[in-house]
Amino acid sequence: MLQFGYNTGVINAPEVNIENFMKDVYKDRYGEDISEEFIQQLYSVAVSIFAIGGMLGGFSGGWMANRFGRKGGLLLNNVLGISGACLMGFTKMSHSYEMLFLGRFIIGVNCGLNTSLVPMYISEIAPLNLRGGLGTVNQLAVTVGLLLSQVLGIEQILGTNDGWPVLLGLAICPAILQLLLLPICPESPRYLLITKQWEEEARKALRRLRASNQVEEDIEEMRAEERAQQSESSISTIELICSPTLRAPLIIGIVMQLSQQFSGINAVFYYSTSLFMSSGLTEESAKFATIGIGAIMVVMTLVSIPLMDRTGRRTLHLYGLGGMFIFSIFITISFLIKEMIDWMSYLSVVSTLAFVVFFAVGPGSIPWMITAELFSQGPRPSAMAIAVLVNWMANFVVGIGFPSLKTALENYTFLPFSVFLAIFWIFTYKKVPETKNKTFEEILALFRHGNGSESDPQTEHNSISSDSVQLQQSAVSPVSGKRDPADGPHK
């Protein structure tokens, strides 16, 4: 996921250098200067074509996970990572901005596959009581990648007319590192046991992952999940969309992904440097403020790792969306009165940083994690493929549409995001269940009873209890992992 973070943020700092390169290429080819409007369009293509590749990669993730395995799919994906990075690295040498577009597209496919395969792999290898924390480590890698791209993108390092192709080409490093390290990792035991029916291989993988020979509890939980899902051992995307039982978790998964992208965070990631400059900062100060965003993302993601399994996904997501809503209003206010009061440009920086803090607390990691948690083994790959496709489509819309939105709304640019954040907060409060410390079977039981809301804990307790009775009667008994005593009694 470091690849995803790095390639999302890397395009931000060298915006001016890339635009200068495009101007030179255009003048050499056609013997005339390019218009300012057209150069902005070309640059927004370089930014957003990454998301088109991401859509394609994300949607192929489910097929790849079933065909080659979670680990096998990730290994193969590095071929795309290396070729995309090489194309971007040699863009200036080849004197062709089309090569930059192609490289960004291929690296987008690579990152799209990562966003589908990685959360699936992590949720399947993690012990139940650590699933949330490990899912957040996934987001930590994204934020470290973002920060790395921002630091390397400053003028003193690689943010120069000669350095930016190297900056983009450095995406080859994590791909090579993964090719060397991933073969040491075990394949997902769930994939080996449920999809492939290789029980002995699954036991071996579990013994390595748990560093213990006591793996019967995990094996039994997987068998319970397999028995419960026998009727839908492999669900196609169309079957998933048409299934009435799985419709509620699918809608929740999709809306959670939209809440991440339409929160306005990618407008900050892609265009924060120009956003800070328009609020009154110098170019150098704007670049350092952008590095501040990356640093805060890393710190806050670290803070949210222990919170994830203690506080719960739903609660953190509500805090995150609520905080982002408040500070998106502050960003709008600071834009409106920056001409009247000099220090207002600093309010816009502080508000943007606080906006990022609340994103890291909830919407940063939870949508990826909860989609993998809401579905059992059969429909999980298809569900992840749909959710990731929606995420990348929304990412593309924000990437390509934000410059036009900024031109049209000027100081009111963040207002549409405020409206979206309010809608997503209400939806999460009303419809999203808590998945903390629940087995996949217990989560599915919530939806069987149409209990998509967590507003009444007693109702949820009754729903789980009645489902447990049902499951015992049908000889399917989910076995849960160890729970933190602070989490209260086992439901």
Automatic annotation (TrEMBL):
<dbReference type="InterPro" id="IPR036259">
    <property type="entry name" value="MFS_trans_sf"/>
</dbReference>
<dbReference type="Pfam" id="PF00083">
    <property type="entry name" value="Sugar_tr"/>
</dbReference>
<feature type="transmembrane region" description="Helical">
    <location>
        <begin position="42"/>
        <end position="65"/>
    </location>
</feature>
<feature type="transmembrane region" description="Helical">
    <location>
        <begin position="134"/>
        <end position="152"/>
    </location>
</feature>
<feature type="domain" description="Major facilitator superfamily (MFS) profile">
    <location>
        <begin position="1"/>
        <end position="436"/>
    </location>
</feature>
<dbReference type="InterPro" id="IPR020846">
    <property type="entry name" value="MFS_dom"/>
</dbReference>
<dbReference type="GO" id="GO:0015149">
    <property type="term" value="F:hexose transmembrane transporter activity"/>
</dbReference>
<keyword id="KW-0813">Transport</keyword>
<feature type="compositionally biased region" description="Basic and acidic residues">
    <location>
        <begin position="481"/>
        <end position="491"/>
    </location>
</feature>
<feature type="transmembrane region" description="Helical">
    <location>
        <begin position="316"/>
        <end position="337"/>
    </location>
</feature>
<feature type="transmembrane region" description="Helical">
    <location>
        <begin position="164"/>
        <end position="184"/>
    </location>
</feature>
<dbReference type="InterPro" id="IPR005829">
    <property type="entry name" value="Sugar_transporter_CS"/>
</dbReference>
<dbReference type="GO" id="GO:0016020">
    <property type="term" value="C:membrane"/>
</dbReference>
<feature type="transmembrane region" description="Helical">
    <location>
        <begin position="102"/>
        <end position="122"/>
    </location>
</feature>
<keyword id="KW-0812">Transmembrane</keyword>
<dbReference type="InterPro" id="IPR045263">
    <property type="entry name" value="GLUT"/>
</dbReference>
<feature type="transmembrane region" description="Helical">
    <location>
        <begin position="383"/>
        <end position="405"/>
    </location>
</feature>
<comment type="similarity">
    <text>Belongs to the major facilitator superfamily. Sugar transporter (TC 2.A.1.1) family.</text>
</comment>
<feature type="region of interest" description="Disordered">
    <location>
        <begin position="451"/>
        <end position="491"/>
    </location>
</feature>
<dbReference type="InterPro" id="IPR003663">
    <property type="entry name" value="Sugar/inositol_transpt"/>
</dbReference>
<feature type="transmembrane region" description="Helical">
    <location>
        <begin position="343"/>
        <end position="362"/>
    </location>
</feature>
<keyword id="KW-0325">Glycoprotein</keyword>
<feature type="compositionally biased region" description="Polar residues">
    <location>
        <begin position="452"/>
        <end position="477"/>
    </location>
</feature>
<dbReference type="InterPro" id="IPR005828">
    <property type="entry name" value="MFS_sugar_transport-like"/>
</dbReference>
<protein>
    <recommendedName>
        <fullName>Major facilitator superfamily (MFS) profile domain-containing protein</fullName>
    </recommendedName>
</protein>
<keyword id="KW-1133">Transmembrane helix</keyword>
<feature type="transmembrane region" description="Helical">
    <location>
        <begin position="291"/>
        <end position="309"/>
    </location>
</feature>
<keyword id="KW-0472">Membrane</keyword>
<feature type="transmembrane region" description="Helical">
    <location>
        <begin position="411"/>
        <end position="429"/>
    </location>
</feature>
<feature type="transmembrane region" description="Helical">
    <location>
        <begin position="72"/>
        <end position="90"/>
    </location>
</feature>
